[in-house]
Amino acid sequence: MAQFTTISEILEAVEEEGIDFVKFHFSDADGIFKEIDVPSALLENAFSKGLPFDNSVGGTFRPTGADLMLKPDPRTFSILDAGAKQKYGRVICELTFLDGQAFDGCVRSNLKLFIRKIYQSGYTFSVSSSLSFYLFDADFKGDAPLSLCPETVLKMENVKRDILSVFNNADIDVVSLRQTYVGGPISMVFKEGSVLRIADNMMTAKYIVSDVARRHNLHASFMPKPATSLEGLAVTFGFTLMKEEFNEFYHPDQDMMISDKARGFIAGIFKHIRAICAVTNPTVNSYKRIVQKGKAPYYVTWSAVDRNSLIRLPSSRGRATKIEVQNADSSCNPYLSLLALLAAGISGMDENLTPIAAVNFETHDYSDSEKQALSAGALPNTLREALLAFNSDDHIKDALGESISTSVFQTGTIEWSNYIGCVHAWELEKYL
Fold first, then answer.
1. What range(s) does the GS catalytic domain occupy (predicted)?
2. Among residues of the chain, what percentage have pLDDT more than 70?
């Protein structure tokens, strides 16, 4: 599918394909796509002037006392197939006030502005990423055994095939869509790209996966830990820092063939990681995945060998040198997660920070005390711990902006209050 760049190209494609409406998508602070359907006859005006809307549609946006404007980005336009030969257009939007001034609650524009500052300093970040999900029958009940009859397995295979087809139409480049065992999590590995494009692709992928699964009478879940017995759902972000044609994270003559900038980036993330978790691991369920200390990282370590470390260095060097962060989960908002991680990593570079020594061996057989001795601490055990760290970290809050930071903290605090005030099945089984 050709990538669109101008409004005239979009209008021409809409007419040729017989598209009746276009979905204007925009992300709230929780990382959920909100949408407004715009009839094709009104598209030219909506693209050229923007689309006013009541900001209550945004859900987790802090009230502004004024309506907002959706400003679509033509480069994100694509035509999606909803099945039964029904096609519709989709475009990702940013949010402004009606007079065109920036709205500081817009997660996409905040990330874009941050990237622009990096670019103006002469550097460019590119990102690789992966995102996992489960496919369940509609009647799946948590810790009950996952029943996979032949009909369900066939549905899953059809879903995966259709997902790849829609991805192709939406111009989403994936390296692979893999499931290592039947009934296990399905991982989408995205082709490396610009920071903003990767965030857009991850948001769009979640939307497409949920839509395709629903059409096959299955449920796509991005819940980080949907059952005690099931593997958690991870998100990884791999960062590469380029200046002209040279990878600034690479240094052939230093230990592990990585530069001081790479070490500073790692140390910066370590310094702020407990606060970052409020963004990369934003739900109470996120910490069910972390505290089990399985494949998810728990201790703050980095390694080129130990696959369960918080930060991993893939083996490739030279131009392909990459710093991969592994703590995020599938409930995260990719716009905010990338912004928080970049802000922390760059601050570590600017401050010339140095991380603790790397762990150059596998630690899966080590005791907790041995792992702790090798680390710079541990990730939060609960959402409450992460929120307290977030509220005390001015650097991360400044990077996100006042409106978004307030939303992250308030939304998380409400979720935590609701969670601790609820009687759960485990308590009934143990105490009733």
1. 107-432
2. 93
